Amino acid sequence: MTAATEPANPGWTEGGAAIVFQRCNACGAKQYFRRAFCHACGSTELSVLSAEGTGTVYAVSHVTRAPTPEARAHGPYTIVLVDADEGFRLMAHGAHDLAIGDRVSATFNRFIDGLVPYFERTTS
Ligand SMILES: [Zn+2]
Fold first, then answer.
1. For the sheet containing 46-50, what is the strand order?
2. CA of 44 relative to ligand 1 center, distance in Å
3. pTM (2 decimals)?
């Protein structure tokens, strides 16, 4: 993790190849979705951090009917919920053979017109 008020590199939702999250400077709570305040205590003192990209699979869903013509070109694909080691949960793409409880690590794949996190099983 890299502590900073601004991300060291932009998160994937901003076109970068990084997973970023917020940590509350007052209570330590973590949140993945950007907010102007902490979801736990309401403080506006938040740090933006880069995640290591490692975690544990919480849920797996295989998408065989993509929602848009652009996404159909990538199908079928797998969507996963991952509990990041830093303590927040995120939705991302993943390998087809992932299962709940797998330890995973992220790379970034091109999807439609941007980069998205893509998780694969790690050996550890
Ligand atoms: Zn807080």
1. 30-31, 20-24, 46-50
2. 8
3. 0.85
